[in-house]
Amino acid sequence: MVPLYLLVLCQICQVAAVYDMIQDSGVITARVGENVTLQCSSQDNTVTFIYWYQQILMGKPQLISVRMTQKSEVTISAEYQDRFKVVMQNKKGINDLIISDLKVFDSAVYYCGILHFNAVEFGQGVFLHVKSSQSNIQPSIHQPALMPLQLGQNGNLSCIVNSEPCAGGQMFYWLKQGGSQPAVVYPGEGWCSNEGRNCTSHFLVKSAGSSDPGTYYCAVDICGKIVFGNGTKVEIEESPNINCLLVYSLSVVLAVSVVVLLVLVSMMCKLKNKTCSDCKGTVSQHTCSAGSNDPNQDAHDLHYAALSVGRNTERHFPDNPPACVYSGLRITKD
């Protein structure tokens, strides 16, 4: 479970990965007494302040330094003034943090933050792992390099710790880094066997979504000594069942569309043929029905015409005479 203060801080400060800011990420390992430089730079002209924060495992973020981008003065918090120093170059936007004479308790996540349009935005963060050179305990952590998960699937990350037993016991953590969000530290569950020599820790990724991809580092605090694994990269893959269902659905929709289109075309052709047939039937009826030889034809339907026959009389018809000239002929005596 993510600590409540971290969730509140994320909401207030809008902690999304800043794409115009470059900061170290992942895990940096150093030994006690050495010096280390944590890099941070931003070339955004709208940035007014640059910050450095430190967050120990399961602790609250603490402000290390703050400075204005247009000035060379840096304000460093009192508890960090002895061994912490900020190196800057305004033209290149560099704001590196130098920690000298490292101590074991310097192991923590270090965030570089900028004030951008009245909102503090953080980089992804880098975990500084300080190893003790005086300890005889040489624990090791083994965890798988890759775990592919399907969208919505649960994943159980695990790591195995081999170490010498100690009176202080063990505490387990999981550090997630990557994607568009800053690094987050989660408490982990674990148990040990063989008098504390072999330990196992698990972390459950529930209903994997778009915010879960990244590298998950298993961390164990053994008698005040923090040990990190090499990290397990979690990748989200689309479920093949979902892909098959989508293909089948699209295929059915396409088939139905083709059938409906063919039915519509067939109906339109039939309607067109019927309309043409009706037109032809009407013309034929009006033109040629008068030439019927039905003997029972009603007298009222007969047309009479006077016939004048002469030798020198010609009947001229147009070039295209009608198909039927007389609808009927009846001879009467005076």
TrEMBL record:
<dbReference type="InterPro" id="IPR003599">
    <property type="entry name" value="Ig_sub"/>
</dbReference>
<feature type="signal peptide">
    <location>
        <begin position="1"/>
        <end position="17"/>
    </location>
</feature>
<dbReference type="GO" id="GO:0002376">
    <property type="term" value="P:immune system process"/>
</dbReference>
<keyword id="KW-1003">Cell membrane</keyword>
<feature type="domain" description="Ig-like">
    <location>
        <begin position="139"/>
        <end position="220"/>
    </location>
</feature>
<keyword id="KW-0325">Glycoprotein</keyword>
<protein>
    <submittedName>
        <fullName>Uncharacterized LOC115395432</fullName>
    </submittedName>
</protein>
<feature type="transmembrane region" description="Helical">
    <location>
        <begin position="245"/>
        <end position="265"/>
    </location>
</feature>
<keyword id="KW-0472">Membrane</keyword>
<keyword id="KW-0391">Immunity</keyword>
<dbReference type="InterPro" id="IPR013783">
    <property type="entry name" value="Ig-like_fold"/>
</dbReference>
<dbReference type="GO" id="GO:0005886">
    <property type="term" value="C:plasma membrane"/>
</dbReference>
<dbReference type="InterPro" id="IPR036179">
    <property type="entry name" value="Ig-like_dom_sf"/>
</dbReference>
<dbReference type="InterPro" id="IPR007110">
    <property type="entry name" value="Ig-like_dom"/>
</dbReference>
<feature type="domain" description="Ig-like">
    <location>
        <begin position="3"/>
        <end position="112"/>
    </location>
</feature>
<dbReference type="Pfam" id="PF07686">
    <property type="entry name" value="V-set"/>
</dbReference>
<dbReference type="InterPro" id="IPR013106">
    <property type="entry name" value="Ig_V-set"/>
</dbReference>
<keyword id="KW-0812">Transmembrane</keyword>
<keyword id="KW-1015">Disulfide bond</keyword>
<dbReference type="GO" id="GO:0009617">
    <property type="term" value="P:response to bacterium"/>
</dbReference>
<dbReference type="InterPro" id="IPR052051">
    <property type="entry name" value="TCR_complex_component"/>
</dbReference>
<keyword id="KW-0732">Signal</keyword>
<keyword id="KW-1133">Transmembrane helix</keyword>
